[in-house]
Amino acid sequence: MNDILKYIDDNKNRYMDELVEFLKIPSISSDSRYNNDVLRCAGRLKEYVIDAGIEDVRMIETEGHPIVYAEWKGAGENVPTILIYGHYDVQPVDPLNLWTTPPFEPEIRGGKLFARGTADDKGQMFSHVKAIEAYMKTKGKLPVNIKLLFEGEEEAGSSNLEKFIQDNAEMLACDAALISDTEWFAEGVPSLCYGLRGVQNVEVTVNGPNRDLHSGSFGGAIDNPLNVLCDMISSLKDKHGRITIPGFYDNVLELTDVEREGFKTLPYDEKAYCDDLSIESVNGEIGFTTLERVWARPSLDLNGIYGGYTGEGSKTILPSKATAKISMRLVPHQTPAEVVEKIEKHLKSIAPPTVTIEFTNLHGGTPVLVERESKPVDAAMTALEKAFGKKPVFMREGGSIPVVDQFRVVLNVPSVLMGFGLPSDNIHSPNENYSVENYYGGIKTSALFLDEMSK
Amino acid sequence: MNDILKYIDDNKNRYMDELVEFLKIPSISSDSRYNNDVLRCAGRLKEYVIDAGIEDVRMIETEGHPIVYAEWKGAGENVPTILIYGHYDVQPVDPLNLWTTPPFEPEIRGGKLFARGTADDKGQMFSHVKAIEAYMKTKGKLPVNIKLLFEGEEEAGSSNLEKFIQDNAEMLACDAALISDTEWFAEGVPSLCYGLRGVQNVEVTVNGPNRDLHSGSFGGAIDNPLNVLCDMISSLKDKHGRITIPGFYDNVLELTDVEREGFKTLPYDEKAYCDDLSIESVNGEIGFTTLERVWARPSLDLNGIYGGYTGEGSKTILPSKATAKISMRLVPHQTPAEVVEKIEKHLKSIAPPTVTIEFTNLHGGTPVLVERESKPVDAAMTALEKAFGKKPVFMREGGSIPVVDQFRVVLNVPSVLMGFGLPSDNIHSPNENYSVENYYGGIKTSALFLDEMSK
C-alpha cells in the first residue's frame, strides 16, 4: 500500500486542481436552466473515470439526468465486488449574496475548499475516482472488482434511481455498497455511520360542519375542526414525550449497552447544540439522551398545519376543516407500512363523532442498520484509522438515505456509509465547504478500504 | 293608531314599489367600484326621508361613505327622543351564479322579496322611514322626537362610525336607540333580542429554534413549535368543554331561571340544526343547552392556524414558529380588556421554557345585555304583539353589534334590538330575501313602538 499512498501524496496538487475544475461545472439538477451543465458534468466525470484507468464507462440515459456507470472486473471471481455510489449533481445556490466567494469559483481558505458541491457530494465521490487512479497507475489493477454508480438527480429526489436499480439488478450485482455522502461526528473525529432513521409522512384532515360558520352564532355549540385537530395531535404524545399510538414501539430495536456507552464517549456539547438553535434546552422522550433520541428513537412531529383564516387581523369564522402534516421518523425494525396502518387506525379511533377524518399516506422510507460485526464495516474502520491516524467512532444519523434500503432490498447487500464530511460543511447552504485534509484523507481511506476488502 | 295602521295598509303597494326601487341601487360598501352607487343610495335615502315628512336631513361626509342623518324635534321636551340606527349599504353578491334572480332586480316569490339588502338592512331600515311617513301624513307629527342615523359602511367594518358618534355625542343625545338589524327566532315567532355576546380576538405565535430544521436530524430532540402550539391550545378547554384560563368565568353573569325556562319554550330542533350543518351532533360546555351555549356562555375557538409546510405532499422540516388566531365570544359582564389580560398571562404561563411566545391583541367588543324590565323593551314587546297578533318571545344572539356598545358608552342609552329578519333570509349569501309579511308588519311595529314610547 505504501506505493499507492505515496502516489496520492505526490499527486495532491493535481488532485486538487482536478476537483476544482469539476466543481466549476454548475450541475444543479433541480433547475432545468442548468440541464446542459448537468450533462456536461456527467461527461466530464466519465472522462475522469477513464483517466483513472477504467475503460468501461457509460453514460446511461434516464427520464431525467444521466447515470454515469462504470465497471472493472479484472480482479477475478475470488475477491468481492464493491458497488460505489455517489452523485455528481448539486443543490441550488440561493441566497447567492450570502456566499463569501462565488459558489462555482472554488477557493481554499483556512484549510477548507469553498464551493457548491464540495462536500455534497462531488468532493466525497471524487475521492473514490482518485483512489482508483492511484491503484491503477501504481499497480496496474485494483484489488477488488468495482462498479461505479454515479447519479445526477440526488438533489432532485432521485426520481429515476430506484427503477434503474430494479431494472439493472443483475448488472449491479455486488457484495457490498460503499457510499460517501455522510458526515463525521465532529472535525478530527473519523466516524462511521451504521444507522439511519426511516420516515413515514402522513396528512390528516378533520372535516366538521359543511361550511365555515360565524364564530358568534355558532361558537361554543359545535366541535371546531381546528380545535379537534389540536386535541388529537396533542394526545399523540404523553407527558413523557412517548408516542401514544398503540403498538408504535412494538418493533423498535432497543439500543445495546455498547451503543449507548459508545454514544456517551462522543464529544457532544449540549450547550453548544442549544446555542446554535437559540433554544433554552432540548426536550424529548424521557430516559434518552439527545443523540439517542435523534439517532435511535422514533419521533413524531408536525411539519405543517393549516385551517381557517390565516391572513392579517381576524375573521370571525369557525373553519369547516383543518389539516395537519405529520412526519414520523422510524428506527429499526419499524416499517413504514406498519406505522402508517397504526397511526391511521389510531387517528380515526380518537376522532370525536362530531367530525370525519381524511387520511393520506404521503411517503415512507425504511430505517437502516448496518451490521457492525461484518467485513465491510471492519474494512472501513481499519481504512479510516490507517488514513487519519485515529481510531474512528461509530455513529448513527437521524435522517434517511433512500438508496441504502434500495440496495438492501433489490441487491441484497449492505451499504457502508463511509463519509468524510463535517458538521461545519454548510451543505445545502451558502458557503458549502469541504476539509482539504479530509479530501486527501478520503482518497487514502478509499484506497485502503479496497485493500482491506481484498484480504 | 287606527288611522296610521290603515294608512300603512292602504299604501302597501307603493311602500313595496319604493323599497324595490331602493334595493335596485347596488350600494356595496366594501368594493370601491360601487362608490358612486353607495353615494347615489345615500342621496335616494335622503329623499325618502324628506318625502316621509322630515325636512332636516343631512348627508354627512366621513372618510368613507356618507352618513345620512335626520332630526325631528317637534314632539317637545316632555316626550322621549329615539335614535333610530340602520345601514343602507349591502354585502357583495358573489357567487353570482347561485342567485335565482339577479341580486339587484328584486322579485317576490312565495311571500318573500328576493334581492341583496332586503333583510340586511335596507328592508328593515325602510320600515322606520315608512312608519314615520304614515305618522306624518296621518297626524302631521310624530309622538316622540326622532333622530335617524343611517350609515353606509356597516358591511365594510363601520370604520368611521365610532368616531362620528364620539364627535357628535351632543347632537345624537337621546333616551333610547332603536336598531332593526336582527332576526326572529323562527318564522311566525315575533322575537325581541335582548342580549349579544362580545368578542375578543387574539393571535399567539410560538417561536422555537431560530430556523426551520431537518426533521430527520432534529426530530425527537427539540420541542417543535407546532406541536407545542397544539398542546397549549388543547389545554385551554377541559374534557367538560370548560375554558381553563384562570378566572375566565369570574364575571360571567349566570342565566336566570326565567331566562332558561324561556329558552326552553322556543321551537328549537336540534336534529334540524345538526342536519343543516351536516354534523352528527352538537358539543359544548357541559350543563348547558345549545341555545344557552351560543347566547349566554363564553366560548373559545380557533379561527385559523398556520405554520410549517402547507403545500402539496411533504417537506421534511420542523418549523421554527407556529401561529394561532383565537376568538373568544364573551358574555355579560366579561370585558375584552379583562379577558385579553387573562389569556395572555395564561398562555405565557403554560408555554414550556423551550419556546417564546408572541401575543397580539387583535380586537375586542363588549357583550350587551338590554334590561328587560324597561320602558323601551316593554314598548317593543307591546308593539310587536299588536302588529303581528302574537305574544313575542325574548331571545339573545351569539354575535356582536358593536354600535350597541358605542351607544351605551358614548350616549349612555340602551338599544332596543327590534328586528324583523328570519333565519331563512340568507343574509350575506346568495338569494337574500325578506318576508313580505314582516316588511309590512315591521312598518306597523315601528309606528306602534313610537306610540308606546310616547305614553
Structure description:
The structure is a homodimer of 455-residue chains. Chain A is α+β, with helices and mostly antiparallel strands. In chain A, helix 1 runs antiparallel to helix 15 (436-454), helix 4 packs across helix 15 (436-454) and helix 13 packs across helix 15 (436-454). A 6-stranded mixed sheet of chain A has the order 1-2-6-3-7-17, with helices on both faces. Chain A has a 4-stranded antiparallel sheet with strand order 11-13-9-14. In chain A, a hairpin with a 2-residue loop joins strand 4 (107-109) and strand 5 (112-114). Chain A is built from 15 helices and 18 strands. In chain A, 54% of the residues are buried. The first copy, chain A, has 2 domains: 2-196 and 370-454, Zn peptidases (Aminopeptidase), CATH 3.40.630; 198-252 and 298-365, Alpha-Beta Plaits. Chains A and B meet through strand 9, strand 10, helix 7, helix 8 and helix 11 of A and strand 9, strand 10, helix 7, helix 8 and helix 11 of B. Strand 11 (299-308) of chain A pairs antiparallel with strand 11 (299-308) of chain B, so a sheet runs across the interface.
